[in-house]
Amino acid sequence: MAVKRDLDERLLVYGATIIKLVESLPSTIAGRRIGDQLLRSGTSVGTNFEEAQGAESKNDFAHKLQIALKELRESNYWLRLLAKTEMLPQETLVVVIGESAQLKAILSKSVATVKGTAKTKGIEK
């Protein structure tokens, strides 16, 4: 259970970091568009993970984790795009991009584990 709590906290911190990053973006057309997309995808990772905790079945749990992973991948893209366009200092982005990559690996492994468990128990579609 400590691992889940640690992941809960990491996702909460990740979402808060995304909010702060978006707030620091320039108020240009590109800054606003990227900011909107990043804010939506980056903050929904944690909410989808939380929703997974109340899943009605293993399949539902896996599906909700997959949605969280999809949103994390999208936010990782926007972060890398910000790095490429140099809208924010690289040192600001390198840490959050690294955390995003780590979280992506954790959620990918979790989805694979849950799907593997579902397959071995014959409960996957």
TrEMBL record:
Tree of life domain: Bacteria
Stored Gene3D superfamilies: 23S rRNA-intervening sequence
SUPFAM superfamilies xref list: IVS-encoded protein-like (SSF158446)
Alphabetical list of InterPro entries matching this protein: 23S_rRNA-intervening_sequence (IPR012657), 23S_rRNA_IVS_sf (IPR036583)
Pfam families in alphabetical order: 23S_rRNA_IVP
PANTHER family from the UniProt entry: FOUR HELIX BUNDLE PROTEIN
UniProt cross-references to NCBIfam families, sorted A to Z: four helix bundle protein
Protein name, as recorded: Four helix bundle protein
Organism: Sulfuriferula plumbiphila
